[in-house]
Amino acid sequence: MSQILVSADQLEPAWLNQTLQLRRLLVQGQVAHLALERKYETGPSTVAHFSVRYSPDATGVMPARLFLKIPKPHKYRLGRNEAEFYRKMPDQAHLVPCYDAAFDDATGTAHLLLADQSATHSAGVPLSADRAAAAVDALAAIQARWWDHPDLGRHMGAPPEQGFDYRYSDRYQSNKRRFEQLLELHGPSLSQKVRDLYEIVLAKGPDILLQRPTEGDLTLGHHDLHSGNILFPQDPKEPVYIIDWQNDWAWFGVKDLAFLLVFALEEEQCRQLEKDILRRYCQRLAEAGISGYTWDKAWRDYRLAAVELLYRPLGNRQAPDVLRSVTRCTQAFNALDCMELLE
Fold this sequence. Notes:
Distance between the termini: 52 Å
Structural class: alpha+beta
Radius of gyration: 21 Å
CATH class of the largest domain: Alpha Beta
CATH topology of the largest domain: Aminoglycoside 3'-phosphotransferase, Chain: A, domain 2
Shape: globular
Helix content: 40-55%
Order of helices and strands: HEEEEEHEEEHHHHEEEEHHHHHH
Number of helices: 12
Number of domains: 2
Oligomer: single chain
C-alpha cells in the first residue's frame, strides 16, 4: 500500500519518483526537483500545489504541476470515498488525471494526488448557456459509462438506499428535526406556503424518491454538482473536468443536472435553459449508446430531482445563503408542478 501523506511536507522527490515508477508512468529518468508553490486550508481538506521538474533523460507521463488533497480528520469518510473513487475509476476524459489515491481505515488518513489544472481551468465561474452545455456534455460522458452497469452500486458507488440514507440521515425524523432547526433560525423569513410544502415533501418524498431506483436507468451520481465542482477550460478545445467525487452513489443522473441548474442560475434563466440542456443530455447519452431513456423519462426524473433538492437546504441550514437555496428549490418545485408527483 502507498504511504499515506498526512502533510504536504511529506511529498518529496523520492516518494514521487517511486510512486510514478510503480504506476508505470515515469518510464525512465527521475524527479529532479519538486517545489511547493502554495498551500491552504478548505473546510474539509488541506490542499497544496506543486511544480515538478525531471531529469533530462526522463520519459513517460511527467506531470509538471501537481495538486495534493489531504482530508481533515473529521472529513475522513469523504476523503476515503474520493480516493476510492479514483482508484476504481478507469481513465476518463472529463476526470482530472490521478497519479495516486490512498486511504487507511485503521489510521483514518487519506490523500489524493491529481494533475493541477489551476493554470488552465477555473471553477466557480458564472454558468452561461455555453458553459452549461459543456458541463452537461462532460456529465453525460461520465454517466453513460456507468449506465445500468452491473458493478454500479456494488463495486462502483454506494447502492441507492445507502447513499440516500447517508446523505439525508434517516428518511423521516432527522429531516423533520433539521426542518425544525431551520425554522428556529429563519422562521420569520419562511412563508406558510413554504412550511406547508416542506411538511408534504418530508412526509411523502422519501418513498417516492426511493421507488425511482427500482425502475432502472441508473448511473453514477455526483450529488454535489455545483459550479465550484466543475473546472471550465480557458481554451474551449480543452476538456471540462468534474471534480470532488466524494458522495457518489447509484441514482438517476438527471438529478446532477437539476442540481447544477437550479443552484447556479436565477429562476428565469433556469426555466429558459433547462429543457434545452436536458435534451442535450439525452442526445449525448444516445450518442454514447444508451437506448430507451426517452424524453418523458428524463423530464419526469428532472421533476423528481426538484423534489429531492428541497432536502439540500436542510443539510446547509446554518449556511449564510440558505434562504436563497430554499427560494430556488421551492421556485423549481412549483414551476415544474412537482406536487403532482407526490399525490
